Amino acid sequence: MVQFNFKGITVVPSGKEMVDIILSRTQRQTPTVVHKGYAINRLRQFYMRKVRFTQQNFHEKLSAIVDEFPRLEGIHPFYSDLLHVLYNKDHYKLALGQVNTARNLISKVAKDYVRLLKYGDSLYRCKCLKVAALGRMCTVIKRIGPSLAYLEQVRQHMARLPSIDPNMRTILICGYPNVGKSSFMNKITRADVDVQPYAFTTKSLFVGHTDYNYLRYQVIDTPGILDRPFEDRNIIEMCSITALAHLRSAVLFFLDISGSCGYTVAQQAALFHSIKSLFLNKPLMIVCNKIDLQQLNALSEDDKRLVDEMKAEALKTLPIGGDPNAEQQVLVTMSTLTDEGVINVRNTACERILDQRVEIKMKSKKINDCLNRFHVAMPKPRDGKERPVCIPQQVSEQRAKDREVEKEKEKRKLEKDLENENGGAGVYSASLKKHYLLANDEWKEDIIPEIIDGHNVADFMDPDILERLEELEREEGFRLAGEEGDDFEIDGDNMTPEEREALNEIRKRKKALIQEHRIKKSTAESRPIVPRKFDKDRQFTTERMGRQLSGLGLDPSKAIERVRSRSVSRGRKRERSVAADGAGDDGMEIDNDGKGSNKRLRLRSVSRSRSRSRAPVEEVIPGEGFKDKEQKVKAIKLGKKSVKKRNKDARKGEADRVILNMMPKHLFSGKRGIGKTSRR
Amino acid sequence: MRLEKCWFCSSTIYPGHGIQFVRNDAKIFRFCRSKCHKNFKMKRNPRKVKWTKAYRRLHGKDMTQDSTFEFERKRNRPQRYDRINTEKVLQAIPKISKVKATRQKDHITKRLSVGRVNRRTEDRRELEQSISLVKAPSVLKEDATLTLPKQKVTVSYAQTENTPMEE
Q1: N or C: which end of chain B has fewer CB within 10 A?
Q2: What would the 3-class secondary structure string for A203-255 be?
Q3: Residues of A with CB below 8 A from B67's CB?
Q4: 3-state secondary structure of A285
Q5: How confident is the model at residue B165 (pLDDT cuts 50, 70, 90)?
Q6: What is the pLDDT confidence band of residue B153, given thresholds at 50, 70 and 90?
Q7: What is residue A23's three-state secondary structure?
Q8: CA distance A588 to chain B (A)
Q9: What's the longest Cα–Cα distance across chain B?
Q10: Cα angle: A328, vertex A258, A315; to 5 degrees
Q11: Which of B2, B134, B139 sits opposite A456 (nearest CB)?
């Protein structure tokens, strides 16, 4: 069984400390900033996280406590009894139980409050819930404060318990107070136990180690035991009783023959008999101490009888295979003051322990496995003949050969020598390709190509690449042949250039229409509809109509004539217009006509248009006040200029090409806020 | 010496270019230029970034499966140098790349041909429907082709007088 490590238990913080630690940890390790403007889910998450975090930490800490403290059922009975003696089993269990319940309570609290937090509807409410949750958890911890304090005390004391290995070879020293147990301990081990003249100097178990025959023995010093009924014993005595009861060891019962401890031999004998039940199955030795004060032979009759009785008891513990000096093994004398017989006592005790343990091992079932494993053979010499070392001849020959080969290796030419011959380290560079293993040695000095046209050559390496390439090209040929047929089909439905032109024209017209519509649409509400006679943009002119109609492929002349005949003219009769219409029919298709009809049409159209309109603008009408045609033209020009719309668009005109400031200061001076000023 | 592929855009990284990033799990990312590197740092998925090869392959813009891809495969086992084989390979590589290139081109052309056909039919339909914008119906009745009408140009007076009309 592995010995429980009492020193490995973590410190148990007090209630207040624990609360402080965990709350500050929650404060540090969870997000702290939250605003009431956040989404409600986020607020809830924030506070739930805090509650859960605190609960987890408490859980961790309390679990650590509960787990690390030893369970009294799970450790060696010696220790469990010792702990019971020292700390009272019930109290111990209760404290741990309280810690456990606290842990569960905290979990429950956290669960409840997390559930409540899911329905928190404002920052304030969530915060209150969190505060309440943490508060309750801390109250739980506060309530178990005394238990925690107790456990801390226990832990501190446990850490100072001596590390006794219950399975090791042990020598237990017991007897009345002041008989010389601790002095003996000091003599045989390195332990430095207090030795004082008053009783109960040793208040607890002490452990020391001693060596005998290359083996280590544990020596346990106990506090003195008084002869009292079992129930009346105090804690200190109970320690030694526990040790006696549970540790399988040799027991050295110390006897002070001189009585200088304050108790008579009779009292000591009485003690012996009262606790002899604890000595069952343990090699027992009666050690008579302080013989420098009182010799064993010089004892009184009664005392000697008592001692003999004790010896008789002790003899019972001897193994059955009797030893000649059995008496010596059971009853020994010594004096710690004069060192007389101390070592002897120790040796005897060690021997007894060893014997007993070996006996037990021999009786157990495992012994056969051990015995089968070793056998010590001690061959006896047959005769006194000399027999020296013998090496066969072959072996010595082989060895000589090996030595020769080594010498040869030293004479072989090294690369280093080659280098030195050819100019030294900086001049000669060794050909690393010299030892290449290739199919053909001529290829050794080849430069291996790695990259070609953006591809890695190594990726293409394949012994049958040319065959595959051939296949590929064949496939490609088939594929191309197949695809040519497809292409022709698609190209069939192509447009002629004239059709293309027509399509472009159509698209242009459409775009123009859309644009116009957009302009009209956007300004229609704010723009007054001007009647046609005040046609500012000259949209409704005959030239325009003529152009559009001829664009469509129609002959506009007839239409223009019709329009002009219908327009307001100065006192022209209707008949002429009718006659003119008739003449206009001939002019439908100019292409086919001869020049005569053209001429006719032209003259006519000219005269017609003129005759039906007003008098030409430049013609001087007497009575207007103009000298001649020139003057009138000039006057008309001036008149037009005066009505010209002024450019009030605030746009720069020709007169406005003025740079007021050739070098504005802000562009030519000053440092930049960021960057360089290497150009301006 | 090995030409690697950029992890982001799959273009080849020539020596002296780009950046190599080794992650803590020992995966190596190579980038051809800082554009790809910066995109990677922004945690952009190359399959969603239009100009990368990964996107193009995934969305069928470029050829994905073809026998020419089998020729170029990274082999992890080193091979002994063999002059004859190397010569063969060096001859074969340009031809293979040519075939691959033509196939790529054809793939793209095929993909785009659908659009071409659609555009053609649309143009024809538009032309048929809207020819009346440029050609008067009476003119169309006479000349049924879908072309611009012949313009009626009034020839100048002087010209008709001087030049004799040829019959």
Answers
A1: C
A2: CCCEEEEEEECCEEEEEEECCCCCCCCHHHCCHHHHHHHHHHHHCCCEEEEEE
A3: 472, 475
A4: strand
A5: low
A6: low
A7: helix
A8: 10
A9: 96
A10: 25
A11: B2
